[in-house]
Amino acid sequence: MSQLKYLVILLSLLVALVLMILPLPDWVQIYRPNWIALTLIYWSMALPKRVGLWYAFFTGIILDTSLGTLLGQHTLPLIIVIYINLNFYQRIRVLALAQQSIYVFALLLIDQVVVAWVEGILGRPTPVLAFLGAPFIGMLIWPWVFVVLRDIRRKALMR
Amino acid sequence: MKTIIEVRGATLQALFLIGLCIAMMFVDHRFQHLEIVRANISLAISPLRYMVSLPATGGNWLGDWFTSHTELLKENEALKAEGRILNARLQKLEILAEENARLRNLLGSSRKIADDVIVAELLSVDQNPYSQLIEINKGSSDGVEIGHAVIDDFGIMGQVIHVNPQSATIILISDPEHAIPVQFIRSGTRSVAFGRGSTRQLELRYLPATADIMIDDELVTSGLGGRFPPDYPVARVTAISEDKVRGFVSVLAEPKARLDSSREVLVIKPRQ
């Protein structure tokens, strides 16, 4: 049974990765929500004992490899976000989905800001307003991600 | 409920992993040690990459399947006409190439006329709108190496910076970290074109105020530095601004290659 649970978690992360590297037109690109972060936030909220920092680390490394960015550039913010989430999940889990969304927006924004810091240190111009788009879309999508993953999780546990 | 020890453990773990990430970024930025890690992970997820590119491939296939007969006829007609025109041009070109080779022989200089190419397709694009990295579906197993130049039908796109067995990362000429040695076709002036983080602009800084530059001048690779093969189109001058006080001119140019929309690219293998 727990084998199946791991499989479900890994599959959902795989789908998130596909959504992250799916080629999109340039103008949509900047609004692409961080699917990996959304999925990891959900799992670390639902199963905090299982899905934690190491998941964030390995998923992040794979994400960095597939995007061709510096190894660690997307990993670092994921770890920070999941760490924050591990400290707050008990308070957030009981909130309504709309309220959770605002919390998720904050987490995604932190993620974006850390990525931007790294870019800045590398001497690349750091975007300002364009960076708000993706977390905002992520916030709108969160309730849907939450419900879908919750249903999947419940089904997997029932079997 | 969480005990204090548990919380402290998570914090320590987080600090450790954050430190690890920072160290990795530093090593990855400065040295080549992590290329193996990158190559192996990339190999492991290559089926996923293939899967991601399936909808596009499938779409093309379906599009081909459902193209109507008349459309095909029309297209065939147009292609034939184009073929004729190209052939006519090619005849001229062949004569010119021969003449060129003869003249070069006379001058005693040897220069490669043609280069080997590898055809590749775009896999993914880095999300950050300001960084200009793309992934292609050919890697070291196809002969791609770090430093190879990448072009599309219109001009230079960039160069290879990471190679994995089945894929490679390309830095575009418009990346702020990238610079490419160029030459003006009309005047022969040499310069270096820097990326500015926008796919529609390159910048040439600190040209002498006396340089002979006009709007619409074409820029080609100069071949200096040995990374890019010479004489490939790079950009077209769109704006010239003079700094009267310091006596410099800086020039903005628009890349010829369609950096943001090309899906098929060619990797140029220099001939040994």
CATH fold category name of the largest domain in chain B: Thrombin, subunit H
Kindly provide the name of the CATH class of the largest domain in chain B: Mainly Beta
**Alpha plus pi helix count of chain A:** 7
Oligomer: heterodimer
CATH topology of chain A: Arp2/3 complex 21 kDa subunit ARPC3
Per DSSP, the total helix count of chain B is: 4
What average pLDDT do the residues of chain A reach? 87
Tell me the overall shape of chain B. globular
State the total count of DSSP E strands of chain A.
0
Structural class of chain A: mainly alpha
CATH superfamily of the largest domain in chain B: Rod shape-determining protein MreC, domain 1
End-to-end Cα distance of chain A, whole Å, is 8 Å
What does the main sheet of chain A amount to? none
Q: What can be said about the biggest beta sheet of chain B?
A: 6 strands, antiparallel, barrel
Overall average residue pLDDT of chain B? 83
Instruction: Count the domains of chain A.
Output: 1
Strand content of chain B: 25-35%
How would you describe what is shown here?
The complex is a heterodimer of chains A (159) and B (272). Helix content of chain A is 78%, strand content 0%. Chain A has 159 residues and is mainly alpha-helical. Chain A has a single domain, classed as Arp2/3 complex 21 kDa subunit ARPC3 (Orthogonal Bundle), CATH 1.10.1760. By secondary structure, chain B is α+β, with helices and mostly antiparallel strands. Chain B folds into 3 domains: 62 residues; 45 residues; 158 residues, Beta Barrel (Thrombin, subunit H), CATH 2.40.10.340. Helix content of chain B is 35%, strand content 29%. Chain B has 4 helices and 12 strands; from the N terminus they run ααααββββββββββββ. In chain B, a hairpin with a 7-residue loop joins strand 1 and strand 2. The longest helix of chain B is centred in the N-terminal third of the chain and has 39 residues. Chain B starts with a helix and ends with a strand.
